[in-house]
């Protein structure tokens, strides 16, 4: 079977979630991905979703894409290759950084929008639960509302126009409701506004009369404002004339400063020339001084060279005298060595050395044998002594722990302690065994597990005595509790043997969920006590885990574990007696242990005592043997020491003779070397005298040069001093000119300050005149760019008095008339006219909205006619497939269109799924309230297969949909998926943690197994295994 367009050909992951590196090539049809929980199956689904432009919210796990980077890595890589039958395959690469992602399409960097367009063009919808259903979103599929399910169905199997028409209908429905609401409101408001305006006509007439009086008062005030402006303008013109006169005076004072500035500039130029000349003279003087210093240094060097020649000659004379003395000493040493060698004994000592050597060899062999035997005996004794000390230390530790345990019992319950002391003295009164309180019998090897044991066994039973026979318990309680008044309690050992208490789930099955053992494995106790704890508190069936358990709570609940422990908490799961699918979980913090903090093992204490006695006997036996061997070793050592002394004397004599010969040869060689080193002192004295004469002649030449350079240096410094005096005179003249200019500048600045003050006064007068002008312009309402009175206003002003006093008198008269009128609210007229405008506006808006409402109703009827029949036919086809699949399961199902409670509520249209799993039931809507998790999973898969018959998508993915299914339903669902995949060209991914036995497999099924590994194989080459794999279907045929 060939790949369809857009199906997944290859998946490569690097540093993604749990994967360091993996490359996967799925088959073109059904791919069954099998792996235990935590192996990385769901990581593969996450990679497909995120690699095809999905978001973390679609996966339902981490909320940020950076959380999918493997711990310890900086980036993660997802590479997915999609089949393209017409050209090169599509290769999409997403590199994930902590805060961003980088995309590539066919190895070319592109923005995410380009990748989204390519994925959409292949009809891939990772966000549609009808096509792509991750493990953490399975529950979301069942929780989808009818409307959400219809939207997902339209996107998955409907036409693009169908989904768009539905969206348009919903938009038109909302627009229709909005328009109808607006029309009702506009009609009501229009009637109200018309009634309000009918009551305001009389108020408007009174307001007009009031306005006429105010108008006459306004014209009087307007002319008064223009007269005020004219007075202010005349004052401004007078200030402006004074400013012009002062500015002319300031200009004249400024022109008087120019001659002084010109003279100062010329003097500055002359002073600059003098500074440059001064710099040149300083350089020449420094150069002359440098030459004098060089000549003086050369004279010093020549004197040093003369002294060196003299010192070298004196050294050579001294060396020659020393050489002659050394020759005389060498000759005397040679004569002494020759004489000593001639007097030495001539007889050989070689034979004596050989005899002594043979005797030493025999002694060494004897010593070695005795030493080896003694060392072995010593080692044996030391090892046994070490073992004995370790046993004694362990016994002291166990005795101390036993006393601590009893002391703790005394502190926690004095009655139980007293009863225990009585029991230890009177054990012979009873037919069977009665154990002291449980806390003294339970041992916890790892103290970190003590908190779990104490949390599981209540304090009352920790203080309880355990009897093997009920009669002994009754007798014990009568003697102690009734006879002595001690408040204690006791229990009887159950009849079941210890082997009868086995965990319901083996540890190998729950270990991957984070559990490391059951409480029974974390404690030691006598069989009778352990049987009681298993019977009463099920310590054999309560597991303990670490922090990983909290990541698998849903799977743990599905396994039926009702009580379990994590690192610091205990979980208790209670199931409703009325509905087994409903449960509640209570979490409690584990407190620190207080009773089992000290562990005692009495059997080990007895065993240690027996071992210590056996070791003591072995140590005594071996110690006697060591003593005897030590005496033999001392005798042999004494004889060996005598041989060594003899050998040492012979070796010293032989060495002495050899050393004298070597010294004689060395002295003869030294004498010959000293004789060859003879030095001609007369020739050396002549050479030294020649060098001294040459140095004296050179020194005389340098003295003459030094005198000439010293005279030139003096002349240069004289010129520098004369030039510096001239510069001081020019600087003094420049200072006088600067002082004169400064006085002129200060006079100019004083006058300039007066001019600035005058300008401020003029500016203030100007602003005041402008302000008065604006007031006058505002009074008559003319534009601000007009400074003259408009003709129409001027004609009105001519009819008024010309003096300010007469105008003021008429203003008072009009104000008195205005005050006699009743107060009129000008807002009444404004409200009247505003309401009249509103009425006109409302009439226009009402007509427009009524026309739009008619257009929306017409468009809704047209769009509904094009969308609803196609949708009904589509759901009918889905219903046929859904019913057929459910009938194959021996159940019943139905898919129908939900139309809402009112007509034309297109936003309430949805898909209604109804199922029946038992004959005595009716069809009920699919929901968590009516069906179990397994039944909902069956319905989900069947609905997805019904959709698959109606559309062509590149691939579908379902992650652990079989959770909660029984084996029969799981087998039937698998057969349906496989048959559907055979009839459809779409690729299929089915993820499951396990496989049922004897499942039939078709040729198109690709099995992918994922497992954990502690080691990574860096040189893994999957292509080397090509042709060697055997498909499950082919294997089944051979069997």
Automatic annotation (TrEMBL):
PANTHER family for the chain: STRUCTURAL MAINTENANCE OF CHROMOSOMES PROTEIN 5 (PTHR45916:SF1)
Top-rank lineage group of the source organism: Eukaryota
SUPFAM superfamilies noted in UniProt: P-loop containing nucleoside triphosphate hydrolases
Keywords, in A-Z order: Coiled coil
Pfam families given in the database record: SMC_N (PF02463)
A GO biological-process term: DNA recombination
Protein name: Structural maintenance of chromosomes protein 5
Source lineage: Eukaryota, Metazoa, Ecdysozoa, Arthropoda, Chelicerata
InterPro entries listed in its UniProt record: P-loop_NTPase (IPR027417), RecF/RecN/SMC_N (IPR003395)
Species per Swiss-Prot/TrEMBL record: Ixodes scapularis (Black-legged tick)
Keyword Coiled coil: yes
Domain RecF/RecN/SMC N-terminal: 8-992
Membrane-spanning ranges: none
Coiled coil segments of this chain: 169-256, 282-412, 605-632, 664-691, 734-779
Keyword Coiled coil: yes
Family: Belongs to the SMC family. SMC5 subfamily.
């Amino acid at each position: 079977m060939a790949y369809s367009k857009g199906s997944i050909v290859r998946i490569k992951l690097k540093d993604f979630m749990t994967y360091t590196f993996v490359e996967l090539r799925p088959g073109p049809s059904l791919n069954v991905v099998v792996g235990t929980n935590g192996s990385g199956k769901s990581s593969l689904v996450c990679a497909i979703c995120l690699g095809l432009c999905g978001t973390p919210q679609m996966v339902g796990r981490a909320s940020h894409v950076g959380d999918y980077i493997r711990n310890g890595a900086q980036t993660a890589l997802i590479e997915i290759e999609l089949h393209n039958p017409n050209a090169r395959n599509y290769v999409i690469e997403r590199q994930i950084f902590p805060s961003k992602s980088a995309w590539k399409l066919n190895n070319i960097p592109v923005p995410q929008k380009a990748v989204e367009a390519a994925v959409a063009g292949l009809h891939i919808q990772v966000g549609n639960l009808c096509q792509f259903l991750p493990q953490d979103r399975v529950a979301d599929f069942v929780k989808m509302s009818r409307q959400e399910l219809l939207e997902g169905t339209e996107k998955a199997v409907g036409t693009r126009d169908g989904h768009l028409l539905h969206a348009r209908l919903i938009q038109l429905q909302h627009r229709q409701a909005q328009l109808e609401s607006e029309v009702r409101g506009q009609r009501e408001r229009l009637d109200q506004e018309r009634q309000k305006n009918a009551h305001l006509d009389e108020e408007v007439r009174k307001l007009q009369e009031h306005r006429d009086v105010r108008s006459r008062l306004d014209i009087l005030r307007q002319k008064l404002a223009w007269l005020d402006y004219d007075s202010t303008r005349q004052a401004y013109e007078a200030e402006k004339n004074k400013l012009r006169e002062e500015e002319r005076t300031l200009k004249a004072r400024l022109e008087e400063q120019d001659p002084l500035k010109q003279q100062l500039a010329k003097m500055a130029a002359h002073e600059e020339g003098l500074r440059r000349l001064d710099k040149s003279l300083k350089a020449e003087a420094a150069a002359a001084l440098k030459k004098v210093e060089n000549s003086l240094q050369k004279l010093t060097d020549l004197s040093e060279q003369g002294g060196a020649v003299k010192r070298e000659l004196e050294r050579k004379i001294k060396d020659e005298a020393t050489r002659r003395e050394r020759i005389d000493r060498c000759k005397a040493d040679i004569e002494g060595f020759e004489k000593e060698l001639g007097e030495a004994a001539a007889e050989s000592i070689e034979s004596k050395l050989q005899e002594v050597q043979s005797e030493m060899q025999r002694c060494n062999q004897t010593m070695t044998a005795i030493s080896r035997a003694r060392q072995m005996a010593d080692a044996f004794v030391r090892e046994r002594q070490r073992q004995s000390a370790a046993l004694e230390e362990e016994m002291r530790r166990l005795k101390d722990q036993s006393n601590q345990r009893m002391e703790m019992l005394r502190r926690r319950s004095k009655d139980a302690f007293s009863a225990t002391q009585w029991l230890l003295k009177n054990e012979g009164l009873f037919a069977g065994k009665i154990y002291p309180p449980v806390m003294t019998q339970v041992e916890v090897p790892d103290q970190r597990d003590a908190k779990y044991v104490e949390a599981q066994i209540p304090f009352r039973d920790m203080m309880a005595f355990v009897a093997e026979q009920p009669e002994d318990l009754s007798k014990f309680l009568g003697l102690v509790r009734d006879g002595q008044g001690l408040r204690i309690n006791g229990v009887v050992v159950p009849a079941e043997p210890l082997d009868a208490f086995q965990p319901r789930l083996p540890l190998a099955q729950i270990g991957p969920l984070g559990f490391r053992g059951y409480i029974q494995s974390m404690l030691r106790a006598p069989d009778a006590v352990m049987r009681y704890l298993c019977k009463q508190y099920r310590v054999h069936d309560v597991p303990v885990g670490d922090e990983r358990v909290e990541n698998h709570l849903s799977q743990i609940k599905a396994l039926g574990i009702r009580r379990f422990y994590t690192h610091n908490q205990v979980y208790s799961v209670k199931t409703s007696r009325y509905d087994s699918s409903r449960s509640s979980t209570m979490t409690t913090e584990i407190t620190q242990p207080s009773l089992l903090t000290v562990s005692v093992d009495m059997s080990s204490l007895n065993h240690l005592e027996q071992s210590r006695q056996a070791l003591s006997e072995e140590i005594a036996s071996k110690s006697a043997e060591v003593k005897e061997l030590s005496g033999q070793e001392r005798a042999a050592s004494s004889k060996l020491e005598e041989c060594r002394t003899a050998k040492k004397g012979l070796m010293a004599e032989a060495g002495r003779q050899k050393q004298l010969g070597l010294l004689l040869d060395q002295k003869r060689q030294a004498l010959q070397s000293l004789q060859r080193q003879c030095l001609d002192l007369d020739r050396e004295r002549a050479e030294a005298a020649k060098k001294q004469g040459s140095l004296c002649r050179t020194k005389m030449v340098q003295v003459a040069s030094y005198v000439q350079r010293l005279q030139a240096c003096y002349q240069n410094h004289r010129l520098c001093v004369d030039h510096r005096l001239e510069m001081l005179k020019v600087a003094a003249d420049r200072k006088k000119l600067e002082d004169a200019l400064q006085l002129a500048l200060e006079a100019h600045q004083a006058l300039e300050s007066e001019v600035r003050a005058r300008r401020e006064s003029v500016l203030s007068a100007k602003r005041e005149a402008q302000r008065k002008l604006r007031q006058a312009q505002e009074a008559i309402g003319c534009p601000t760019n007009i400074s003259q009175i408009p003709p129409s206003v001027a004609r009105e002003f001519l009819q008024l008095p010309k003096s300010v006093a007469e105008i003021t008198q008429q203003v008072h008269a009009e104000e008195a008339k205005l005050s006699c009128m009743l107060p009129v609210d000008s807002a009444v007229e404004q409200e009247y006219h505003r309401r009249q405008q509103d009425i006109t506006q409302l009439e226009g808006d009402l007509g427009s909205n009524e026309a739009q409402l008619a257009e929306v109703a017409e468009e809704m009827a047209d769009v509904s006619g094009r969308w609803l029949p196609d949708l009904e036919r589509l759901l009918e086809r889905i219903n046929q497939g859904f019913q057929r699949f459910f009938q194959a399961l021996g159940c019943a199902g139905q898919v129908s269109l939900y139309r809402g409670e009112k007509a034309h509520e297109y936003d309430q249209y949805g898909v209604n799924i109804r199922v029946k799993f038992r004959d005595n039931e009716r069809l009920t809507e699919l929901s968590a309230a009516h069906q179990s998790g397994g039944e909902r999973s069956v319905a989900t898969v069947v609905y997805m297969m019904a959709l698959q018959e109606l559309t062509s998508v590149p691939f579908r993915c379902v992650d652990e949909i079989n959770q909660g299914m029984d084996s029969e339903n799981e087998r039937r669902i698998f057969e349906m998926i496989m048959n559907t995949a055979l009839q459809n060209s779409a690729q299929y991914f089915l993820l499951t943690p396990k496989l049922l036995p004897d499942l039939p497999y078709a040729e198109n099924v690709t099995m992918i197994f994922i497992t954990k590994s502690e080691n990574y194989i860096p040189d893994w080459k999957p292509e080397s295994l090509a042709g060697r794999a055997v498909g499950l279907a082919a294997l089944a045929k051979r069997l």
